[in-house]
Amino acid sequence: MFSFRDLFQWERFVTPSIIKLFFWLAIAIIVLFGLSAIASAVQMMAVSAGVGVFMLIGALLGVTIGILFARIVAEFVLIVFRINEHLGAIRSRGDL
């Protein structure tokens, strides 16, 4: 993990350590919005069954796409930091 000192030093990046926390926070928000959309779809089914079913399918599809997108963004951030680490290793190897 990271210590409080890492926040004030620039030798080590903090983002790779806390990206998992942001990923799970994004998942929680996506699921909450999905549950809200599902509740709205169920309420809409009382008014119009067809529209409610489409809303339900849209909510489930939205949650799935949201979770996938959150994972892709988190992996992209980690890949960028990993590229930086590899480039630093290549640079330090070239100095020898």
Provide a short characterization of the protein structure.
With 96 residues, the protein is mainly alpha-helical. It has one domain (16-91).
Secondary structure layout:
Blueprint: H1 15-47, H2 49-95
Helix pairs in contact: 1-2
What do these coordinates show?
The structure is a single chain. The chain has one domain (16-91). It is mostly helical and 96 residues long. Helix 1 packs antiparallel against helix 2. The chain is elongated, with a radius of gyration of 21 Å. It contains two helices and no strands. The model has no long low-confidence stretch (mean pLDDT 88).
Quick tags:
2 helices; elongated; 96 residues; mainly alpha
SS class: mainly alpha
**Any idea how many domains?**
1
Number of strands: 0
Listing every helix as H and every strand as E from the N terminus to the C terminus, the arrangement reads: HH
Integer average pLDDT: 88
Count of helical regions: 2
Low-confidence stretches: none
Shape: elongated
- Proportion in helices: over 70%
